[in-house]
Amino acid sequence: MVSSNLVKAALFGADPGYGRILAALGARAAEGHHELDPRRVSVALQGVQTFHRGAPASFDPDALRALLRQRDVDVHVDLGLAAGRAEAWGCDLSYDYVRINADYAAVLVDPDGPVRRDQRLDTKTPELKTELLVSALRYIERFAGTRAVIRYGGSTLSRRDLALSFAEDIHLLSAVGLKPILVQEGASEIVVSALARTGIRAVGLSGADGNLLAWPSTAERNEDHPISMDPDVIETLLQKGYVPVVVPALTEEARIVVGDTTAIDVDQVAAEIARVCKARKLLLLGDSSGLSSEGMLLSELSAEELAERVRARTIEEPMRARARAAVAALESGIDSVHFLDERLPHVIVAELFTDTGVGTMVR
Question: What residues have CB less than 8 Å from 317, skipping those under 6 apart?
Fold first, then answer.
């Protein structure tokens, strides 16, 4: 059973069914001329009975899918024959395994390292090149002139490779006409330097520059928009072809009101910048693949569904404040908010230039 490619693929896809397991057992029994009565067979996945004595068992498929997302998966099969016992170890079958073995031209043996994939476009067929270019041009047309606010943080700022891939994404987005506004969590020049290497003219801004940010007193604060913002300096930079990089910081007066700069919510600042600058998209990058439910990534939600999850407090604490900022942005007219894992290279391009994306998109 552990050698069955169909079973491997099912486990990779967190398929809670038992059909492929039974089929693999039957095929192997037939090959070896062994006795196998399906009326005696029982199957359990992750300790959950799915098939018992020849009949389907009652179980919660969604809950079992969440269990099957774990690193190790236990498959227990009782043949109902005797007291004997055997144990075998196997692995799943991923998308990349199929893709690599389906295209031998995409595999190179590096004499100084392991086998790797050749991603160069010139190794692909003319048909594939045409399909990729047509698809890319459609996205380029869609995003021309669009403003997008992109919030990023510690992982991008702590790893040079991620900072460089992030800068390349911003360069590509700018080249196709999208106007990015960056909001950075933490004081670091690494991204601005990486952007300069790609030819992007980036300008770092603190909250005090051009009176960009202010934090009203409690008595004057608007709960819907607690941060006061003057977007003139950002507008000026955009009109002159610069990429603004905002590092939220408060004036001395505002710092006294707040008590300390650590009180600044960077996600909230990014949402407010998206609102006042009339951006269409807000990308919130962090150390999470997106929003999940029962252990499974949610690829798309409506604004109403996200708001309800925030109200019901079903979102995990590390993501709750970010989700609240997303709700505020959507209610102010932003077309879509994207939750992305900044630890993945080129995650921005992968999200915006593919149909399904790689994170969670909320419309």
Answer: none
Domain ranges of the chain: 5-78, 125-362
Say which CATH architecture domain 5-78 belongs to: Roll (3.10)
Q: Which of 2, 178, 6 is nearest to 77 (CA)?
A: 2
CATH number of 125-362: 3.40.1160.10
Confidence (pTM): 0.65
* pLDDT (tens digit per residue) in 163-221: 999 999 999 999 888 999 999 998 889 999 999 999 999 999 987 777 787 755 554 55
And the tokens for 325? 């900022």
DSSP letters, 61-87, are: HHHHHHHHTSSS--EEEE-SS-S----
Ramachandran area for residue 288 (φ above 0: left; ψ -120 to 50: alpha; else beta):
beta
